[in-house]
Amino acid sequence: MDGFPAFLLDGYKSFMSDRYDPEQGRYRELADQGQSPTTMIIACCDSRAAPETIFSAGPGEMFVLRNVANLVPTFQPDGGQHGTSAAIEFAVAALEISNIVVMGHGRCGGIKAALAPDAGPLAQGDFIGKWMAMLAPVADEVSKYTLLTNKERQTMLERFSIRNSINNLRTFPYVKRLEDEGKLAIHGAWFDISTGELWVMNDEGDFYRPDV
Amino acid sequence: MDGFPAFLLDGYKSFMSDRYDPEQGRYRELADQGQSPTTMIIACCDSRAAPETIFSAGPGEMFVLRNVANLVPTFQPDGGQHGTSAAIEFAVAALEISNIVVMGHGRCGGIKAALAPDAGPLAQGDFIGKWMAMLAPVADEVSKYTLLTNKERQTMLERFSIRNSINNLRTFPYVKRLEDEGKLAIHGAWFDISTGELWVMNDEGDFYRPDV
Amino acid sequence: MDGFPAFLLDGYKSFMSDRYDPEQGRYRELADQGQSPTTMIIACCDSRAAPETIFSAGPGEMFVLRNVANLVPTFQPDGGQHGTSAAIEFAVAALEISNIVVMGHGRCGGIKAALAPDAGPLAQGDFIGKWMAMLAPVADEVSKYTLLTNKERQTMLERFSIRNSINNLRTFPYVKRLEDEGKLAIHGAWFDISTGELWVMNDEGDFYRPDV
Amino acid sequence: MDGFPAFLLDGYKSFMSDRYDPEQGRYRELADQGQSPTTMIIACCDSRAAPETIFSAGPGEMFVLRNVANLVPTFQPDGGQHGTSAAIEFAVAALEISNIVVMGHGRCGGIKAALAPDAGPLAQGDFIGKWMAMLAPVADEVSKYTLLTNKERQTMLERFSIRNSINNLRTFPYVKRLEDEGKLAIHGAWFDISTGELWVMNDEGDFYRPDV
């Protein structure tokens, strides 16, 4: 193992002077009293779509799960180790957050892999194929949409995937119950890396650009 | 579903003027050419410990997996849907990153749950207990360290957990091989929310505060 | 028949003072020398999407065909009275224009009718159903895209229809030959009435927002 | 295909700042509530005679059909694809417009072709001859009016054509019925490109210059 990457230490130094020092009181308070974020974001690991950056979030504001392609599985209490489900449970039951945002983004490598499961460097892999298989029924369906260009198909699957994850979220009994009681709101969002545009989802599942 | 949270739209507006506009060329380049981050960070969902914030990372720099307590399971190619393993495979095989940093933090709720599996709001939950059980051998061991105060025990388990995750990372054959070939470096880091201190791990597994 | 509508006369009066008088020389020149527009626009009759308005076009700049849903039929020299084909022939053979733009728009009533041919006030009509039947193979196909919301399906058919019209344009032998010779360029565009956004089509058939 | 024409993008940019921005509320309302124009204009494709320009029309005011020489065929419910008839049906049956204006103009190239069907670049064409043949009985008749100069003959055919189209409009049963019921008014207009003069038709079919 080499030394700790210098660019990370440089970044940390900037953080300390630019962010931590001015917000020192906030960090201490958050340490003493524990976190109480109102919002959980389920986002992708992609290096170009960090939720804290896109939403200018300060410390303590967002509980952030990130996996490949921001997928949510259905509720499967089978005793297995479900990291995404564990994070959802923690956010809802322990933190009592009031919003969950499933946030996708353009040019997602995971979605691309779902559309071409037999191509690319991950075709023979052990995990990506299995992970994205969660989306296989949707990906198979969209692969039949022959009038779409490749780019349109990718974008549509990114959106279908967000709607699919939101449907899956509602298979968690406590999520469903709290949403029905008006105590938890579920949202969808899609970020366009190229243009910086943010699209959010309405009740019909359509994406639109909100006024900001 | 209510409207999209206003504070997120406000944050997005700030992002557009403060970050996206000055870095527009960078975002477009990242969209056109794809991401090529050099570093993967495996971090916790905790709202107080966002890696991009702590390392002042710009777009495209970090591929970031976040789950509860920044755990890495062992290599289990059993056909199941392993989100964390899928992200590791994607980072190593598709993105060919050269650094993996497992980053923990102080006052971690997941670690606290691992130390008291029969207490708290998640004791009867479906997923958190199972997820943190990955750390049960280590947690059971540290619970016998009767000379530690509760706070020391929590901090020690946060650190043991980072070392445990790093050991588990090395059960992935391609991670092990690339590390042996000097093409991939694995690091540990721990962030103290209260003081803003960053501690990093050396080759012996010891944590120290680097000069910055 | 009542008198000529007063609001049209009011509008004409404004035109004379605001547009004709300042451009009088241009109008006289256009009358004396004939029109020589460089561009043909094939657009919809919709009252919300006038091409001269959207492109701020002056007199003599655009030869504009408008029919319901901006459709182009295939080349059918069967002796029938094909108004759209006549306009294309006039633009290409007599005016020797160098650009054809097929321009669609959001919330198109004709496209809506194509998606629901058995509903609405036109279901029993004599002509709309037949006219939109030109798009039936595409509309039937997109009606199978069950993952799309109604709004997405409408937007996608608006775009598919533009691509379909462009393909049909290329069945006109002189259009094809001139395009191959680099003397005629064919473009697609889509206008969003709600936001004012203009999207144009690239060589892959994808729509994007150009920098303006 | 080359890039999208720059002059169109420039025009669009002007539209956005000069027209869309001040009328943004109107555009959004028109998008949300649908169009409800009171008037249909049947005009020529000619680049010098755009109805929205001549009548200073705002968004949502005019449903505009444009074909070569603003012709209306007779009612022919033969199952063929009649674009002009489809637009009329859409305007009357779906939009319930209350005015139809057939608008011709001076120096019309289509009318010129009708007067000299064996000359000019379109003589051997596939569609223009057939299209203008709709006007052949009228054109043949006017060609016998040997006392007219060529310029007078052109102008007279432009006017005869408007009257002919209006007669043909009345062969559509629903047009006739609504006109008889006083719910739909039919108008004729003729625009002189050279002088900017607008002439409108009275009940006797005479054209006169209205006071404005």
**For the residues shown, what is the average pLDDT of chain A?**
93
Distance from first to last alpha carbon of chain A: 46 Å
Spans of chain A of at least 5 consecutive residues whose pLDDT stays below 50 are: none
Main sheet: strands, sense, barrel of chain A: 6 strands, mixed
Q: Class by helix and strand content of chain A?
A: alpha/beta
Radius of gyration of chain A: 19 Å
CATH class descriptor of the largest domain in chain A: Alpha Beta
Number of strands of chain A: 6
Task: Tell me the quaternary state.
Answer: homotetramer
CATH structural architecture of the largest domain in chain A: 3-Layer(aba) Sandwich
Q: What's the order of the H and E elements of chain A? A: HHEHEHEHHHHHEEE
Largest interface (CB within 8 Å) is between: A-B, 102 and 101 residues
The side-by-side strand order for the widest beta sheet of chain A comes to 2-1-3-4-5-6
Number of helices of chain A: 9
Helix content of chain A: 40-55%
Beta-strand fraction estimate of chain A:
15-25%
Catalytic activity (chains A, B, C, D): hydrogencarbonate + H(+) = CO2 + H2O
GO molecular function, one term (chains A, B, C, D): carbonate dehydratase activity
Family (chains A, B, C, D): Belongs to the beta-class carbonic anhydrase family.
Keywords (chains A, B, C, D): Lyase, Metal-binding, Zinc
Give a description of the structure.
Four copies of one chain form a homotetramer. Chain A is built from nine helices and six strands, in the order ααβαβαβαααααβββ. The first copy, chain A, is 42% helix and 15% strand. In chain A, helix 7 (136-143) packs antiparallel against helix 8 (150-169). Chain A has helices at residues 6-20, 24-33, 51-54, 83-94, 109-115, 128-132, 136-143, 150-169, 173-180; strands spanning 39-44, 62-67, 99-105, 185-191, 198-201, 207-208. By secondary structure, chain A is α/β, with parallel strands linked by helices. Chain A folds into two domains: 1-34, no CATH class; 35-208, Carbonic anhydrase (Beta-carbonic Anhydrase, Chain A), CATH 3.40.1050. In chain A, strand 1 (39-44), helix 3 (51-54) and strand 2 form a beta-alpha-beta unit. A six-stranded mixed β-sheet of chain A has the order 2-1-3-4-5-6, with helices on one face. The N and C termini of chain A lie far apart (46 Å). The interface between A and B is large, with 102 and 101 residues. Chains A, B, C, D: Reversible hydration of carbon dioxide. Chains A, B, C, D: This is Carbonic anhydrase. Chains A, B, C, D: Belongs to the beta-class carbonic anhydrase family. Chains A, B, C, D: Its EC number is 4.2.1.1. Chains A, B, C, D: One of its GO terms (molecular function) is zinc ion binding.
